[in-house]
């Protein structure tokens, strides 16, 4: 069982410390589903964000999730890999009360006003209003299990503890049971990721949890009315082929919700901006190329549509491009000592700016994230490189349509060439280009403002050169050393 936040918060000092104080404070017992419903409705009425960090589902998936929560339904999320199913499930914990009272020492997180086990009921009856009350933070009320073939009923539900039997307790005594992950998340949310990978005989163990809300351990007549929300995720391919959710279990989920990849380019970009951990500046036009690239890969007939192309593909691409920019900046800083003789330390973060040429590396480093059709074996990099060029050309047209770019084509009209590449610095590239008519308008269209840095200007120049090549207005050659040379088409 995992918690989104491993640091256990400390309860505020003003919370009731005994059962009597809890009653006097007017606290009332609510089930988890009532709690989620009340808090969701309160956020709706306040206009607050119900699912922070979830991008692209506002008009599709989230309304269905909200209806399921309001109806008190357990749910299963179906979608290809990298669609944010797990993140969405984990965000549900934020709808729980921040603090909830528990009986101290109870492995089932029993509520002082609603004890479950005979031992806890006896403890409440004996102590009365003097019963100590503990407080559980909502981050500790979320449990999660990745379904694997070796998962057992004991892992999920529980098993007899032979040590407790040896200590003299009788069979059938609830105290002899070592509870599994599901009952230990009582009064919380429990998630099963990739449910179809769970063996069918293990799925049977969840039937009572979903419908009768109790558990059975090795045939013992033990009724513990569990109070939890059960959520599962599944890949549609697994759902129908490699594994399946057994029919009685499917029937017990109140809601089946389909997830999807970002429906448009802006949402894809928003997801990259939110999730990518960039070690260098990546201009907007480069991010747009990567977003279009990810969407093109997803839609390509060369790619297996059943496996999908994860949103992590575009995120990793952005991080790779940023890393390439940082590598260039560091190597160039160390290659030429300044006049004083000592080398400057390698620059970090903000001094490095990604260029469109840095995107070439993603075709090799990220091909493992894509499942190709069997007929494309050996052509994976070729297919990805073609799709990257297509995405670059589309971005070029979208960003710079209508601009007069003759100043750039004139640079090579007399047989001159412009050389760029992974280890060509911004100053070197700009020196080759000189003063170009229309460059200011290009940089403005690319969102670089009135005073771009040399690195930003170089990124804009390289993008124009590549775009002109892809639209057949400039020639291009790649040297043996890996440098890119732009020249006339003759």
From TrEMBL:
Protein name: Magnesium chelatase
InterPro entries (UniProt xref): P-loop_NTPase (IPR027417)
GO MF assignments: protein kinase activity
Lineage summary: Bacteria, Bacillati, Actinomycetota, Actinomycetes, Micromonosporales
